[in-house]
Amino acid sequence: MSGLTHKRSAEYVAKDVRERCIIYVNGAFKDDSTELGRLMHDFTCANPDEMYYQEIAKKVRYLKRDNGGIKEMTEYYDKWEKEVAEEAIESNSLEIAMNLITDGTLSYDAIAKATGLTIEKVTELARAKAV
Prior knowledge:
Layout (H helix, E strand, L loop, with lengths): L2 H16 L16 H10 L9 H12 L1 H37 L4 H8 L3 H12 L1
Helix pairs in contact: 3-4, 4-5, 4-6, 5-6
């Protein structure tokens, strides 16, 4: 990619990011002679002192080294961990419910009580299974 083409692409990417579009890039591309390569380097670099872009380095330094940033990251991680655990529990409940529906020995009400799902959700699963 020529320097001019790369510059135009970078401007286009910046515009799209401001418009909240999702952009996929090859994260393995870390050629430090291009803006994108330096950006990909910074996204995977754990040490802010080795980053090219000071805006990113400053934020990473705050999140990893400053007490306020560490607290912020801890709170974020704790929230994320709770969400993942809740999703795992729900997924497990859905799987158990589907197995019990397939088995056919329990009523939908009993399945709802056993799994913690609502009777409406169990009925919905049974209908989806029947299709």
